[in-house]
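Thread title: Can someone regenerate the structure for this chain?

I was given the following input by a collaborator and told the matching structure tokens would be attached. They weren't. Posting the sequence so someone can regenerate them.
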Amino acid sequence: MSINILSRQKLNQSDLVYLYLFLIPTQLGLRYWPENALVLGLRIDYLSLIIYISDLLLLAILLLNRRYLIKNLKSFTNHPFSIVILYLLFQTTFILTFKIQSLLFLIKIMALIGFTSILKTIKYSRHKVSQIFSIQLLFIFILSFLQLVKQSSIQGFFYFLGERRFSLITPGIATAVINGQKYLRPYAFFSHPNIMSAYALLTGLYVLYFFTTHQVKEKIFKAFVLVLTFLILVISYSQNSWLALVISLTLILSPKIVNQCYQFLLPLTLLVSLSTPFLLIKLSPIYSRPEIISRNLIFQKLKQFSSKDLIWGTGLHDHLLINNQTYPRIQTMQPIHNSVWLALTLLGLAGTCLAIKPIKSFFHKAKSLPSPYRVILITAILLSSFDHFFLTAQPLTILLVFIMAEGLNYLHESKR
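Best answer:
Regenerated them for you:
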């Protein structure tokens, strides 16, 4: 069916948005392994190319709104982040080694920017979005609980939703040791338990704030979903999310702190995120868990950055090949476990200088966000202190971009 026919039938685009959001957690898609994704005889997951079914839905949304996008092309060139996009295009073309991977990442970022612009024109209900997130959380809990009990993937129907095949003996699988017994940490649909728990926490906060109802049955369902969210965090064994949960609950129970101290709280949270890798290095002699040692060694690869890497950046992938001289390279072939520092190394000094103005513009607007979006943003920054998933895990990237775009759109509408 052609796009013109779809347009004439006045396809309800809000339904497409709902479907797009519903499919975010699923890992259903096509994965391609280019030759350069094979390093030291092993496939590096971060170097594979993936087109998800949600990408195709986003493409449909963009095509349906192509006239709006073309009409507003000039305003896009004036977008605060347009200079950063141009720099990333230059970097991909002339600097980076993994050009195909970087180009796909750049295309997806541009598509998300187009989506946030279109979102202003689409009328949708935050209540319905919160219901969609509630259903997601229900599915995530069911699948993660089954995986915990079975100590492996479930497959069957869940395979078609993107569940990966794994078990307790799968190399590199995430585990937890409790009372001397090793357990597999559940993944649900995601590529890591930490991503699952972060997604559950952020969507749980959205449900808490925007699932508003006067019906007793819906109130019970909302309470049930929030309990499931807590249980997902518990069985994920993600201590990063546990810490973020405690802080977010403190902010929720202390609205005056959020409203009166937010101007200082936001930069303070960013400072904490930037300082976290150094704090973990200082604590390593007394807190020498294997995952902490590994993260510290990955961060210390910054010492091996060349002047070219520091100035022009390494993109999202080139730094994977930088060797930590004190540790086997395959063990440190991961992104820096801090989304803020990963963004800085991605851009380099040149890109960071270009990004300062648009970032300042965003955080200036963020200071005026309604309280729910403030709490979600602070929680996301705290989560980013310990992991790279806001740049490397597409479900979390889309989720955070959507929620922040919604908050800024709501702010814009309220000023009219």
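The beta strands are 29-32, 38-39, 42-43, 49-52, 175-178, 181-184.
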